[in-house]
Specification:
By secondary structure, the chain is an alpha+beta fold. About 25% of the residues lie in helices and about 5% in strands. The chain contains 4 helices and 2 strands, in the order ααααββ. The protein has a two-stranded antiparallel sheet with strand order 1-2. It is globular.
Length: about 110
């Protein structure tokens, strides 16, 4: 392993076996873990591999608190409450990770769409 790679992994974290690390657009730098806990969940120990973006948390948690996400105007996020609590498919089918006009090609591509 070369010095540059070693330094990058130690200072940015490592999501092995996923490719890349923090500050990259590879799966290792963009995928994250999260959890929801409470009596309102249908099952115990469920796991979702559905596509959810950080912008989805606001409408999702707003609904969990009893609000109507349709009242929130001009959001990029999608209400994912049924995805997390009932195992339904995510309404999100694509996601823009980043478009960087001055990419640092040593850390992967300057833009990514999934």
């Amino acid at each position: 392993m070369n010095k540059k790679r070693t330094k990058s992994v130690h200072s940015g974290g490592n999501n092995f076996p996923l490719r890349g690390n923090k500050a990259t657009l590879w799966e290792g730098g963009t995928r994250a873990a999260a959890f929801v806990h409470g009596k309102m969940l249908a099952g115990v120990g469920g796991r979702s591999k559905e596509l959810i973006h950080v912008t989805d948390w606001l409408p999702t948690l707003y609904r969990a608190a009893g609000g109507d996400p349709s009242q929130l105007k001009e959001l990029d996020g999608i209400d994912q409450w049924d995805t997390l609590t009932k195992g339904k498919a995510s309404a999100r089918v694509e996601m823009l990770y980043n478009i960087d006009p001055l990419p640092d090609m040593s850390n992967g591509p300057g833009g990514a769409i999934r």
